[in-house]
Amino acid sequence: MRRGKRGLIATAVTVVCAITVLAAPGAAFASPSPTPTPSANPPLAPSKDLEAVRQKLDTLYRAAARATDEYNAAEEKADKQSAEVVELAKKIVKGQERLDELKERAGAAAASQYRGGGLPPEAHLMLSDDPQEFLEGVGRVRQGQHATKGLLGELARTQEDLEQYAKDASAQWKKLESGRKAKAAAQKKIEKQIAQAEKLESALQKEEQQRLVELEKEAADKAQTAWLGSGILKDISGKASEQGKKAVAYATAQIGKPYQWGAEGPRTYDCSGLTSQAWISAGRGIPRTSQEQWKQLRHIDVRDMRPGDLIIYFDDASHVAMYVGDGAIVHAPRPGRTVTIAGAGSMPILGVVRPDTGADAGADAD
Fold first, then answer.
1. Catalytic choice (17, 146, 299, 331)
2. Which range is most confident: 31-35, 84-88, 176-180, 228-232?
3. What pLDDT does 137 receive?
4. Is the Cα torsion angle 95, 100, 104, 110 positive or negative in sign?
5. Confidence class for position 112, pLDDT limits 50, 70, 90
6. Which among 87, 119, 296, 333 would be 20 to 30 A from 69, CA to CA?
7. Which DSSP category does 357 fall into?
């Protein structure tokens, strides 16, 4: 460790309380007194100071999780808008081809009239001396009039469709550009929060980092114990549906893979990337983000949940995990951590949602 390191944690806690970014280690933390003899084992920060760091890290990573949801939502919207722009472009191409064809037909009709001396069919009919030819000609003229009217009508409609497609494409393009800006802004938020958290963690000694992990586990265990202490587990007896079993199998197979914001596998995941891909593997597409999963999927009472259901956490629905049974979840926790098993009550539960189709799909499955 660098000189002056022993006072770094106390300084970091002060900075945390002031809600500012921790400065890089260096002369700013050097003691004005004569340089002390380096110690082989510098004193560790008191547990209460590490607890303050833990809470600050939790705040930073929660903020990053919210920004990640914003990023994922913007990305999903941008993908849909891009697909819509492509479809409109295809319609414009087909519409232009049809317009060209109709114009060619109209041109051929005009040329035919020119070859007839420039007289309309009605005039030629009136000049005929043959009564039979006159009667037959009346029918042909009427058919020609209907055909011409239909051709001109289709020309007008095709032209109007093309103009509308162009307007729609322009509007979608503007939305796409707006979505890209929202995505970029969310990315900046994520990177800022994670950078602050990583700087805070990197300032800790190795032993302090290990102790920090222990404090995180202790806090989670305490919350889980309180949740189980309510007797909730004895009321939870639902069995997984066939789709639920497949989703759980996929999610648990990812245990040990790193968390990465915005990732949907197969090597890394964020929390909703894991749950959405797990259910896609089970044949059920669900919303990409935890907030949309909370908004769009069917809500289930906690006591009625079964393996495969998704538990949404925190008041802002910024985290999601999959229930695997026996009071446990599988989830991608946060940057710097891997997909893991944890207690279902280790975080504040907002509610439970069920991706399965049908009110009681597979409820009685073994």
1. 331
2. 228-232
3. 52
4. positive
5. low
6. 87
7. S
Note if 331 is an active site residue. yes
Active-site hit among 17, 146, 271, 299: 271
Query: How far from 234 is each of 227, 302, 325, 326, 360, CA to CA, in Å?
Result: 12, 12, 12, 10, 20
Asked if the model's pLDDT at residue 299 lies above 50, the reply is: yes
Task: State the Cα–Cα distance between residues 342 and 327, nearest whole angstrom.
Answer: 9
The span from the CA of 68 to the CA of 228, in Å, is 30
The pLDDT value given to residue 100: 75
Q: How far is CA 69 from CA 58, 63, 261, 317, in A?
A: 17, 10, 9, 9
What mean pLDDT is predicted for residues 156-163?
76
- From 17, 124, 146, 319, active-site residue: 319
d(CA 155, CA 157): 6
For residue range 74-91, list pLDDT tens digits in order: 887 777 777 777 777 777
Alpha-carbon span 200 to 60, nearest angstrom: 10
Is 319 catalytic? The answer is yes
The question of whether 17 is a catalytic residue gets the answer: no
